Amino acid sequence: MRSRFVHNGGMEIFSKTSQMPETQPPQPQTTSDQSRCVLVCQHQSCLRNGSEGTLKAFEDADVPNVKVEASGCLGQCNIGPTVRVIPDETWYYRVQPEDAKAIATQHLQGGKPVQEKLNPRIHPQFNF
């Protein structure tokens, strides 16, 4: 719930309003035999940067219990092609076809995200 200021004839009052629903990309349905889903953006700027080949490379990796899907815009247009792994909520950026094998092997099969390709907006990394 959020408070909202309402001006009523010179009086200041506050009323509680329901929180606005946030618009989020549709979530693919996962079943028990498909524990993860890889979404590869296929929107305009990602396509211009080679996401069609990235999608094919993930499909060709054929990782058991992982579904690969083309998605609409994931909102990271200037650092695409974008790849999102759910339910992990791991976001990769500038993913080229040659990166798909490392992500499939190291992350999807081995459980360790590929640090070099993690989206810095979503997964900030600090070096002290």
What does this structure look like?
It is a single chain. This protein is of the alpha+beta class. It has a domain at 36-117: Glutaredoxin (3-Layer(aba) Sandwich), CATH 3.40.30.10. The chain contains three helices and six strands. The chain has a four-stranded mixed β-sheet, covered by helices on one side. Strand 1 and strand 2 (11-17) form a beta hairpin. Helix 2 (51-61) packs across helix 3 (97-109). The two termini are 38 Å apart. This is 2Fe-2S ferredoxin.
> What's the CATH superfamily of the domain at 36-117, by name?
Glutaredoxin
What is the SS-derived class?
A: alpha+beta
Would you report the number of β strands? 6
Number of helices: 3
Q: Please bin the fraction of helical residues.
A: 10-25%
Order of helices and strands: EEEHHEEEH
Placed side by side, the strands forming the largest sheet appear as: 4-3-5-6
CATH architecture of the domain at 36-117, by name, is: 3-Layer(aba) Sandwich
**Would you give the CATH topology of the domain at 36-117?**
Glutaredoxin
User: Which residues form runs of ≥5 with pLDDT under 50?
Assistant: 1-26, 28-33
Strand content: 25-35%
CATH class of the domain at 36-117: Alpha Beta
The backbone outline, from C-alpha atoms, is globular
The mean pLDDT is 82
Radius of gyration, CA atoms, in whole angstroms: 19 Å
| Major beta sheet summary | 4 strands, mixed
SSE layout and pairing:
Blueprint: E1 2-8, E2 11-17, E3 36-41, H1 44-48, H2 51-61, E4 66-71, E5 83-86, E6 90-92, H3 97-109
Parallel strand pairs: 3-4
Antiparallel strand pairs: 1-2, 3-5, 5-6
Helix pairs in contact: 2-3
